[in-house]
Amino acid sequence: MPVIAESDLIESVSDALQHISYYHPEDYVQALGEAYEKEESPAAKDAIAQILTNSRMSAIGHRPICQDTGIVTVFVKWGQGCTLASNSSLQSVIDEGVRRAYAHPSNPLRASIVSDPAFSRRNTRDNTPSVVHVELVPGDSVEVTVAAKGGGSENKTKFKMLNPSDSIVDWVLETVPTMGAGWCPPGMLGIGIGGTAEKAMVMAKESLMAPIDMAQLKARGPESDLERLRIELHEKVNALGIGAQGLGGLTTVLDVKILDWPTHAASKPIAIVPNCAATRHAHFTLDGSGPSFLPTPNLSSWPDVSWGPDKHARRVDLDRLTDREVETWKAGDRLLLSGKMLTGRDAAHKRIQDLLGRGEQLPVSFKDRVIYYVGPVDPVGDEPVGPAGPTTATRMDKYTDMMLGLGLLGMVGKAERGEATVASIKAHRRAYLMAVGGAAYLVSKAIRSSRVVAFEDLGMEAIYEFDVRDMPVTVAVASDGENVHASGPRHWRQKLASGL
Questions:
Q1: What is the pLDDT of residue 310?
Q2: Helices 42-61 & 26-38, crossing angle to 10 degrees?
Q3: pLDDT tens by residue, 401-432
Q4: CB neighbours of 350 closer than 8 A, spacing ≥ 6?
Q5: Interatomic CA distance for residues 96 and 98, integer angstroms
Q6: pLDDT score at 487
Q7: What is the pLDDT, as a whole number, of residue 460?
Q8: Helices 419-428 and 397-405, packing angle to 10 deg
Q9: Can you point out the beta strands (E) in 239-394?
Q10: Which domains does the chain have, with CATH numbers?
Q11: Which DSSP category does 393 fall into?
């Protein structure tokens, strides 16, 4: 009977989490490279180029692909012939592996997990606890799949109890546009059908652990109804024209994965879990012979794509920016930002709101400033800041009118803004700029210095002041209210419908 040492499981989990923080799965980068070659939308092609360039940089530099290093989910298929040599629970052993990975001195990962989720939401500081799913199976080995899921994509999860006669395809096509771009497409859609509500959700998540094989599936042809459904959804979701980062284009999903389970005769539960451009997951096996360490991938299989700034991009001096200059920006313009910008996310915005509500003075002025929605990874060595890609801007929508009223000139984030926020931006004659989600290490190279200027106790959610040079962004909502996250997909949906 194989005995799995506690230390072997801890080391293997820790190694896997470090590995997936900076190495994309090879199937993903190859599929994304193929999408890059066929993409005809300039904005989407530029976004994919940034993601692919960031992927290579992260692999070489051993720094996170994305600043949101995720909530850890672990799927364990425990062979019934195996014993865990530990006085601790399986959850505790796996969490120790998570703890060590996220505190690794040469590549610390961002701790994003908060306890007491309904009330105080205190950061646990070590990214534990993880979410563990265990299945006892026949055999003399332990199969472990480790994933790290960012909040931007996890928050776009959808579920519905369909009637037995309802169309799965119709529901998916109605639902995907409501997910916006906060899940950082192009990625994958995981779908769970059947069982109970919670079973459908778990299946949708677990389906994302499978290799990308849509091209191979189409080449050989479907052999089951589920495979036919995968192909149909892949083609019809891409025909929506949402595109990379929601800017409009040919590729929204690289693959669609489906798992199903028998369900009640009166029910048809269905769940969608999207996987973002970071798509972090890995698999290892333990058989009692020692820890399992993942092999280093061969970077020669990475697409030969090197992003550079658009030659038509406008350079913007943030230290001399005026409202008149902001009003000259047009939706879709590429900008290169240089100078000092502030940062702020959910917790900082809430605290600003509370201070204003009590009539207290703010610790920093936002007049004529630009704010970047970001929660960076801690720096190592001589880095001014760790990977620092944008967070989903939609979460700050309810604070936008307040912030623009304080004199803010612009905001930088990822994904779309809501209708009320677009109206507020237009009324104030300001702008929302989009940075590419999934290109955090690339973006961080534009940051020359960083210092905390307010709310230091909030950790990665504190307000920093970054000094940036040539930080690439796209004008997503211009001062006249033009919104590329609406116009881009609409344009490409029409082009796809007409056969290009």
A1: 84
A2: 150
A3: 999 999 999 999 999 999 999 999 999 999 99
A4: 399
A5: 5
A6: 96
A7: 87
A8: 10
A9: 253-261, 268-275, 280-286, 314-317, 334-343, 370-372
A10: 1-150 (no CATH), 152-275 (no CATH), 314-488 (3.20.130.10)
A11: G
What is the four-CA torsion angle of 82, 85, 89, 91, rounded to 10 degrees?
A: -70
Q: According to the model, what pLDDT value does residue 311 have?
A: 86
Is pLDDT of 500 > 80?
no
Q: Tell me which H or E stretch contains 467.
A: strand 463-477
pLDDT band at 499 (very low <50, low <70, confident <90, very high): confident
| Contact status, residue 256 vs residue 214, Cβ threshold 8 Å | yes
C-alpha–C-alpha distance, residues 285 and 130, integer Å: 19
The dihedral built from the CA positions of residue 437, 31, 252 and 279, taken in this order, carries a sign that is negative
Average pLDDT score, the chain: 96
Q: Count of alpha carbons within 13 Å of 238, Cβ hemisphere only?
A: 19
Bridge partner residues of 431 (DSSP): 410
53-76 confidence digits (pLDDT tens): 999 999 999 999 999 999 999 999
CA 127 to chain centre: 17
**Alpha-carbon span 217 to 259, nearest angstrom:** 16
Phi, psi angle pair for 94, to nearest 5°: -65, -40
Which candidate, 68, 55, 48, places its Cα nearest to that of 22? 55
Question: What is the DSSP code (8-state) at residue 342?
Answer: E
